[in-house]
Amino acid sequence: MVKPLFWILACIVMLNGCASRSVSLYEELGGQAKINEIVENFVYEIEYNDTILPYFADTDIDRFIEKFAEQLCVFSGGPCSYSGDTMKQVHGGMNITEADFNLTVDLFINAMNKANVPHTLQNKLIARMTHTRKQMLYL
Known about the structure:
- By secondary structure, the protein is mostly helical.
- It has one domain: Globins (Globin-like).
- It contains seven helices and no strands.
- The protein has helices at about 5-20, 25-30, 30-45, 60-75, 85-90, 100-115, 120-130.
- Helix 3 crosses helix 4 (about 60-75) and helix 3 crosses helix 6 (about 100-115).
- The longest helix is centred in the N-terminal third of the chain and has 17 residues, at about 30-45.
- The chain is elongated, with a radius of gyration of 21 Å.
């Protein structure tokens, strides 16, 4: 005969399995505080890069920070919505080259490294952002 304690433990294990939920990338990253840290680091990286900084010459940096944080929140599955312009609207007329785009990605990776974001999470976030690439180059 199976003891009642066994059945109680079995039910608890099954209920815990059913009650579990998947964790979003947003949560894995550390939520809005970590998103904000990445964005601040990214702005710092841009500020000290003579190749990329000219692309931001006419940029309202406060708006950029706000909208980029919104985008990262959305890309990571956070509780946000993006309220900015389309990537084509923002980057139109800039004629961003592939080399400069790739350099900007490197700066973004530097920003995540400085925020101590693990490489596996960096890769997940960048993978979710890749669809924007074609909306930025050579416009």
